[in-house]
Amino acid sequence: MLPRHGRGRWFDPSIAHIIVSMHYTEITDQFRADFFKLTDEAKSICITAHMSADEDAIASALATYRLLSDKYPGKNIQIIYTGEPNNRFRPFENFEKIQFVPDLSDYLDKFDLAILLDGGNYHRFISKPDKLKEFPGKKICIDHHSSPPDKFDLALIAPQIPSTAEIIYLIFYKNAPINKPLAEIFLLGILGDTGNFSYLKPDQTETFLTAKRLVEESGIEIAALQSRYRTLEPEILTALGELIKNTSYHKIDNWPPLQASFLGRTFAEDNSLSDRQIGEAAELYTVFFIRSVVGFSWGFTIRPKSNGECNISLRSLPGSVNVRELAERMGVGGGHDRAAGGTFKEKGKVLDSKECLDKVLDWINKNEPVIG
Prior knowledge:
Elements: E1 8-12, E2 17-24, H1 29-41, E3 44-49, H2 55-71, E4 76-82, E5 98-101, E6 113-117, H3 129-133, E7 138-143, E8 154-157, H4 164-172, H5 180-194, H6 206-218, H7 222-227, H8 234-245, E9 248-250, E10 258-262, H9 265-270, H10 275-288, E11 298-304, E12 310-316, H11 323-330, E13 333-335, E14 339-344, H12 353-366
Parallel strand pairs: 2-8, 3-4, 3-6, 4-5, 6-7, 7-8, 10-11
Antiparallel strand pairs: 1-2, 9-10, 11-12, 12-14, 13-14
């Protein structure tokens, strides 16, 4: 069990390795001081978040960019993402500053500090994880996922806080002035990763107080805000319909009944669907259909990527399967106990989603349930 706070050397027997860095699991004044020490020293700063950027990833990067560009107006500070642009977030301040590129690894040598947000593992940010491992500059991580992290020079990983955007708010803005554009950015991340507060646990009620301040001081109406970025392209509905069509239900000995779906590579290619469109459709299916069917407390979706890999998204209800532990034990990814994800990849091979779905079902059949 990791300490709830601290810095220096820590050991987690469950992952059987030691990381030497300044690692925090709670927000402290010392973390803030350490953060600004590294940003003060840096001449050029790259801000990034995980691939297939969702609301929290976008919000975290925009909030961090706003913080640092205000503090260091003459410094080279850039937001760079591996992946396709998602223009539905264009209404948010400084979105046009985000550079969406084929791979972050081609740009890292321009910076001496990388700030990685909403993820603690190199492979979530870049298709060539060794490039981050070998990066000669400093690395800062701010995240809220429970999975064991890779090595960073400075890290704040606080799974007890439901979004990375709220962590950034609590570190840097809880007692600072907030204008409407910045409040909208924080609400984007908070609402996205809490499912409009529906995923909050009893020990996460401070998030209501954060949202209260953001809404009251900026005069934001949440419905009006979300109407500006919750838009769908026809292609996304096409992909969603295929996911609904491919839904299957499984009852496996000792495991809670599960629901699964997939989107095939041939279907994606025949309909000229981009990775982003497929990802948004899978997210809609996962959010609105997994955990909603009577008698099926958990499940997953699998979708293809244009690079030959396949992504999996898993969700579960309390008392059902711990999907984070399942993803970690399978060696495909991690995340939260109730919401996790990962990637299937084989060097030199193009994978199909149905093939990966069968691998998951085979693993479940051969292993004891992961409940918690």
